[in-house]
Amino acid sequence: MRLYFLDTSALVKLYYQEKGSKLVYNILTGEGTFCISSLAYPELIATFSRKVKAKEININDFDNIISTWKVDYKSLFAVVGIGNEIIDYAGSLAEKYALKGADAIQLACAFEIKKRIEKSKYEDVDFILVSSDKELLEAGDSEGFETLNPEEGV
Q1: What are the DSSP calls for 23-59, one per residue?
Q2: Distance between CA 41 and CA 77 in Å, rounded?
Q3: What residues pair up with 79 in beta bridges, in sequence order?
Q4: Domain boundaries, the chain
Q5: pLDDT band at 52; cut points 50, 70, 90
Q6: What is the spatial distance between Cα 52 and Cα 128, in angstroms, rounded to a whole number?
Q7: How many Cβ atoms are within 10 Å of 32's Cβ, its own excluded?
Q8: pLDDT at 117 (0 to 100)
Q9: Which of 47, 56, 67, 99 pairs as cysteine with 104 (C-beta 3.0–4.6 A)?
Q10: How far is CA 72 from the centre of its chain?
Q11: Which long-range contacts (CB under 8 A, 24 or more apart) does 134-141 make?
């Protein structure tokens, strides 16, 4: 079984053509389970709001992207909520790796999924952390995650 945890930097590539978009599309149209943090919901909307402000996309594109995102969020992804335990752990990760707060929360959510896998009866789970954020990927590597940067390919 293949399980992917995608942070917002990877998710954006599904809705906006940029380096790594094809790989993210291939991942999400292939077989596997796709997990995200609930933090991705406002982060993705904020990312595209900033693209409108910077005139990188128009308001019609924004509306189409966000309406697709809202459907996908509820139907395509297993979402990890952010509770106090994750926030506390994110603080430890931010301190240990000097991560930005949002990246620390993303990594803490990935750990939550990893913990659930270890407690489950599933065997042979390939768990892959997908991000375009180099600092997040480095921290993930240091913590023993298999990582994938869609901008660098397989």
Answers
A1: HHHHHHTSSSEEEEETTHHHHHHHHHHHHHHTTSS-H
A2: 11
A3: 36
A4: 6-133
A5: very high
A6: 31
A7: 14
A8: 86
A9: 99
A10: 13
A11: 135/97, 135/98, 135/99, 135/100, 135/103, 136/7, 136/9, 136/99, 136/103, 136/106, 136/107, 138/97, 139/93, 139/96, 139/97, 139/99, 139/103, 139/107, 140/107, 140/110
CA 7 to centroid of chain Cα atoms: 2
pLDDT bracket for residue 154 (50, 70, 90) = low
* Topology annotation, domain 6-133: Rossmann fold (3.40.50)
3-state secondary structure of 120: coil
Q: HSE-up of 90 (CA within 13 Å, CB side)?
A: 21
Residue type, 75: S
Strand order across the beta sheet in which 146-148 lies: 78-80, 33-37, 2-6, 126-130, 146-148
Cα separation of 148 and 150, whole Å?
6
Kindly report, residue by residue over 78-97, the tens digit of the pLDDT: 999 999 999 999 999 999 99
Q: Which two tokens stand for residue 81?
A: 């909520």
Question: How much of the chain is helix, strand and coil, in % rounded to 5?
Answer: 60, 15, 30
Instruction: Tell me the C-alpha distance between 53 and 55, whole Å.
Output: 5
What does pTM read for this prediction? 0.94
